[in-house]
Amino acid sequence: MGALLKWSAGVALLCASQATTAATVGPVTDDLGVIRIAKGAPIQIGAYWVLSGADTALGLDEKRGVEIAFKDMGGKLLGHPLKLNAEDDGCNAEGGQTAATKLAANPQTVIVLGPACSSAATPGAPILWQQGIVDICTACTAPALTAPTRKKEYDGFARTVFSDSEQGKADATYVHNVLKAPSVVTIHDGSPYAQQLQQVMADNFRQLGGKVLSQEAIAPTDVDMKPLLTRIASEKPDLIYFPVFTAAAAQIVRQARGTPGLEKTKLMGGGSLLSADFIEAAGPAVVGFIIGYPDLSPEAMGKNYPKFVEEYKKAYNEAPISGYHANAYDGAMLAVKAIEKVAKTDKDGNLYIGKKALRDAVFATTFDGISGPIACDQYGECSQFKPSVLEFTSSDPKTFGVGKNPKKIWP
Amino acid sequence: MVGRNIARLNAVDVVLWGLRVGVVAVVVIGTVGTLIKGRYNAAQWFDFIMFGLTIGSIYAQIALGYTMVYGVLRLINFAHGDIVMTGAFAGYFVAMPLDRSGFLEDNPVLAMAAILLVAVIVSTSIAVLTERIAYRPFRRVVGLAPLICAIGVSFFLEQTFRGMFGSAVKSYPDPQWQRAAFHVFGFNVPRIDVLVIGLALIFMGLLYLIVQRTRMGTAMRAVAEDGEAAALMGIDVNKVVVFTFVLGGAMAGIAGVFYAFVYKQVYFLMGFTPGIKAFGAAVLGGIGNIPGAMLGGFFLGMVESVGPTLFLDGIGIPAPYQLRDLIAFTLLIMVLIFRPHGLLGEALAKKRA
Fold it and tell me: What is the domain range of residue A400?
């Protein structure tokens, strides 16, 4: 018993000393530890996105954005090659947890980019921060991730994408003031992204004087939406708002068309649906369907965005396949600029990066990104939001192109 | 006497009875409440029932594959849902060119026959190959190894199809004749629902006749009763097992095409959820029992479709459709508590005895 107590006290002491004592490696001293990168060894940047399943385009588009950013840097930073270790998180909590654990287990992971989905970021970011690794998210937009009320375990989380508290407000404004729809029904799929976005939209819609008839929920794997839509039809809403993901959203769009009572009801989705895959999944019913999205038109984006798009087309033989490539590019640039600020090289050419210093540098770095100005607030929100509404114009996935199909209809 | 019976009750009995009373109370109070509210008109109730019958007929067809294989091999063929997916994919690659050429629109009967035929050939071939390559070596193995093997086959099929055809959701054609509806007594009956339910009943009836009236069907039932005794009587068990996988694979292929025509999407993971639900339906009906699997499928479909509205609307539970699986599987557990052998399982057990 006595031995056990001594052992426990020893472990507690060790943990306490780890939490408070700064580590010194080479020329760098840092409270959270120091990463040493041997001369000529790569700077390893971790990443996790959805790279399989129905929402692949979302993550792949961001991965490409980061790859272009690395290419623009010449593939090197401070004389070391840049290496991207990308993991697939499947756009779900389990996948996010696994991917983050794997990245955190690599002592050479300097910083992590991604994910695309808030469901993956919610469990992933605390796992990374436990190891002192900063996570710059490139598309997860759930408000709670950068809210002033967020927990300490999210201190290492920042994002170069807007918060859905802005998106939900803009969507509510559009529905109420532009469409003049007096009543809505919302649907979410239980994911942090969908749940929080529809809640923000519903709250803002009520504040504007609109009526939220009900807030429904589905499972992301549901295919038979007809009973739910029949139930919604009995409430006679003017608009159904469902910021869910590709497979389920496509089913709602398709099945709503044939549901008696919903013939005149408008349908509106979220940014997760900006992809050719969604057009393919939804088929002819996609024409006329609208989504709320940040404004990606050249006049709203940073001045280098058109050049980036050309580079993208050249590298992958197609136009951007989803909408968060610019945020991912800026996320990578933010990481690189922060590393440049804090990294120190010893006389043998080894590189040292302090983890806390890197976190502080990420939060302090400002620059003009291709998605707009990047400047983080104290809660890690680094992006500026400009709203827009896009409408799908054709059911042919080959016509997909932001600004063409779907085309911007507001503002 | 009553006192003695009460004294015999243990805590588990009390909890189980409490659970039964609770579920029955929710069902009764919810149903009465919903009907009194009168929020839905007759046409909407009719729609709920049609949706339930449609998805139920698909579950029933898939459940048949589970139940037949279990009956003959005592194996839970976890990969059966993925056999459904292979059928849907095969149908997709026939349906798309037929749709583009206009043949699917102009000649629905011939086009559907071609799509179903190809789907059945592909799903049956994969089911038979699965049995030959993966399951047969485990035939005499006792324990969980065959189940783990079946789970492995499931992953193998999913990832193979993902590798070959990508992970994006593909859209099934949507010809005009499927979108049309019949008008019966003021109700709109979607043509595709009638087609799927009708054809599913016909195919299931045919399967039942094959199992009950043909020589091979009799052999199949004999192997299901007692494999070793059947082998001693000169029945080629391997042949019977292959025949079982042929029937199960064919039904899976048909179910895959129907599923894709109703819900218009195919992708590599599409078989997983209906597979699990159909397995639940097979257990509900009494695993190993063919009419039971059909009944279980329809029951599950109906509960999923009508249950959330009928039971939960009346007691004011918001967003009841997120609880659809919970309701379906709670009722499934309730049935199994009352009838551990499933809805029709006991009759078979008695017959065997």
Answer: 165-296+388-410
Angle at A274 between CA A270 and CA A275, to 5 degrees: 145
How many helices and strands, by DSSP H and E, does chain A display? 12, 20
Are residues A274 and A361 part of one domain?
Answer: no
CB atoms within 10 A of CB A24: 12
Query: Of B67, B110, B122, which is closest to residue B291 (Cα–Cα)?
Result: B67
CB contact under 8 A, B318 and A54: no
CB contact under 8 A, A281 and B269: no
- The CATH number for A283's domain is 3.40.50.2300
d(CA B321, CA A217): 6
Check: complex ipTM more than 0.85: no
pLDDT digits (tens, 9 = 90+) for B175-223: 888 878 888 777 878 888 888 999 989 998 998 899 889 999 999 889 8
Match 């819900």 to its residue by tokens: B263
**Which chain A residue has the Cα nearest residue B43?**
A260
Q: Is the dihedral of CA A41, A43, A45, A51 positive or negative?
A: negative
Please tell me if residue A91 touches chain B, with a CB cutoff of 8 Å. no
Query: How many structural domains does chain A have?
Result: 2
Vertex B242 angle, CA B238 and B244, to 5°:
115
Min Cα–Cα distance to chain A from B64, Å: 21
CA–CA dist A250, A254 (Å, integer): 6
The minimal CB distance from B264 to the residues A227, A254, A277 is found for: A254
Per-residue pLDDT, B2: 58
Q: Is A16 inside a domain boundary?
A: no
Contacts of B242 (CB under 8 A, 6+ apart): B128, B131, B132
pLDDT in tens, A94-113: 999 999 999 999 999 999 99
Residue type, A153: E
